[in-house]
Amino acid sequence: MKKKIALIFGVTGQDGAYLSKFLLKKKYKVYGVKRRSSIINTQRIDDIYKDINFKSNFVLCYGDLTDSFSILSLIKKIKPDEIYNLAAQSHVQVSFEVPEYTADVNGLGTLRILQAIKNLNLENKVKFYQAGTSEMFGRTKEKFQNEKTTFYPASPYGASKSFAHWITVNYREAYDIYACNGILFNHESPIRGETFVTKKIIQGLMRIKNGNQKKLFLGNLYSKRDWGHARDYVEAMWKMLQQKKPDDYVIATGQTITIKEFVNKAAKKIGFKIKWFGKGINEKAINIENKKIIIECRKRYFRPVDIDYLKGNAQRAKKLLKWSPKTSIDNLIDEMIQYEL
Ligand code: NAP
Ligand code: G4F
C-alpha cells in the first residue's frame, strides 16, 4: 500500500515535533518545512534521526509562510495527502510588538497555503489542517467556549488567527477543499518554548532550587488557562483529517486554573514551601525555608490587554472524533519537571 504523505509547516516547533513522531509511528512519509535560521534550531526533531525506522521517512525542506513561491513549489513537488499548518508567530505578547509580521505569517500565510492548493488543482486530493486557537475567543463572556462561541480576539495574534480560521472555512465552502480548523486551547509539554508561562515557571523554579537563578519574574498571575498536553492534542489534529467530512473542532480539557495556582502546584512538586504577600505588581512569593523572595511581578510581562479566562468544551470532538485528553495537569507538570531534572 502507498505510504501516506504529510507536509508539516512549523515542524521545528513544539507541536511540529510531536506531530512528526505521531505520523511516523503511523507509517507516514513526513516532509517538514523549516525556515532559515542563523543557528541550527532542530533540537526538537533531532531524535527522529536516531530512530532507524523514522529517519528514512522524514525529510526536512526550507520554506517560509511569508513566501508564496516556496509554499507553491513545495506542495507541487511533494504532492502531500495531508498538509498541517502549524507555522506561526505564536507568542501573544510578542504579537503586540510585531503586529504586521504576525498578521502576515499567521493570517496571510494560511491564505497562501490554501491558494497554492487551489492553483495546483489539488482541491480534491489534499486535506488541510489549520492550527486555530482559543485566543480567538479572547474576551468572550461565555463560561465554556465551544465551536459556536463568537470570536472576540484580544491581540494581533488572536485577530490574525481569526482571519486564518475564516479563510479556511471560506476555501472549504467556496472550493470544496477538505479543510479543518482545530480550535486548540493551551497545550504544553517538556519541549514547550521557554517564554511561555508554564515552561518559564518550571524552568525558573528548578533553576532557583539548584542555585542557578535567584528570582522568577512574572506578569498577570490571575488569568485562567485550560492546559493540556501537546502529545494528546496532535492526535486530535490527525483525527480531524480522517473523517468523512471536514469540520472545525474545539480541543480542550475542560479544566481551568490561574497562573498562580499553576505556580503553587509546580513549587510544591519541586519541594518549595512558598508564601504569597503584596498585591498587584507588588505581589511576591517567599521561600518559607530561607525567607528569600523567589517570585516577583514585572510590568514588562503584562500585556496591553489580557484574556482573563479560557475554558473549553470539547464535547463535539469527544463524540465525533472519539478524542479525549489523556494527561492531567498534575501529570503534565510532573513530566515537565522530570525533563528539567
Ligand atoms: P511554536 O513552538 O511557536 O512553533 C511555531 C513553528 O512555526 C516553529 O516551527 C516556527 O519556526 C514556525 N514558524 C514561525 N514563523 C514561520 C514562518 N514565517 N515560516 C515558516 N515557519 C514559521 O508553536 P506551537 O506551540 O508548536 O504551536 C503550533 C501552532 O498551533 C501554532 O500555529 C500556534 O499558533 C498554534 N496553537 C498553539 C497552541 C499552544 O498552546 N501550543 C494553542 C493553540 C494554537 P522556528 O522554530 O524557526 O521559530
Ligand atoms: O503562556 P502564555 O504566553 O500563553 P497564551 O498567551 O495563553 O498563548 C498560548 O496559548 C494560546 C492558546 O490559548 C496559543 F494560541 C498561543 O500560541 C500560545 O501557545 O501566557 C498564558 C498566561 C497569559 O495570561 C499571560 O499574561 O500567562 C500570563 N503570564 C503571566 N506571566 C505570562 C507571564 N505569560 C508569559 N508568556 N510570561 C510571563 O512571564
Give the N-terminus to C-terminus distance in angstroms: 43 Å
Percent strand: 15-25%
- Widest β-sheet, arrangement of strands: 3-2-1-4-5-6-11
| Mean of pLDDT | 97
The radius of gyration over CA amounts to 20 Å
**Low-confidence stretches at least 5 residues in length (pLDDT < 50)?**
none
Structural class: alpha/beta
Main beta-sheet annotation? 7 strands, parallel
Which outline best applies?
globular
What is the count of DSSP helices, taking H or I runs of 4+ residues? 11
> Could you tell me the number of beta strands?
15
Helical amount: 25-40%
Give a structural overview.
This protein is of the alpha/beta class and 341 residues long. Helices cover 38% and strands 18% of the residues. The chain has a seven-stranded parallel β-sheet with strand order 3-2-1-4-5-6-11, sandwiched between helices. Helix 6 links the parallel strand 5 and strand 6. Bound molecules: NADP nicotinamide-adenine-dinucleotide phosphate (NAP) and ligand G4F. The site of ligand G4F has 22 residues, from helix 4 and helix 7. Ligand G4F binds next to helix 4 and helix 7.
Q: What layout of secondary structure does this protein have?
A:
Elements: E1 5-9, H1 14-25, E2 29-34, H2 52-55, E3 58-62, H3 68-78, E4 82-85, H4 92-97, H5 99-119, E5 127-133, H6 156-175, E6 178-184, E7 187-188, H7 197-209, E8 216-218, E9 224-225, E10 228-229, H8 230-240, E11 248-251, E12 257-258, H9 259-270, E13 274-277, E14 284-287, E15 292-297, H10 315-321, H11 329-340
Parallel strand pairs: 1-2, 1-4, 2-3, 4-5, 5-6, 6-11, 7-10, 8-15
Antiparallel strand pairs: 9-12, 13-14, 14-15
Helix pairs in contact: 1-8, 3-5, 5-6, 7-9, 7-11, 9-11
The structure holds NADP nicotinamide-adenine-dinucleotide phosphate and ligand G4F.
Residues 90, 92-93, 133-135, 185-186, 195-197, 200, 218-220, 223, 225, 259, 301, 303, 306, 310 line the site of ligand G4F.
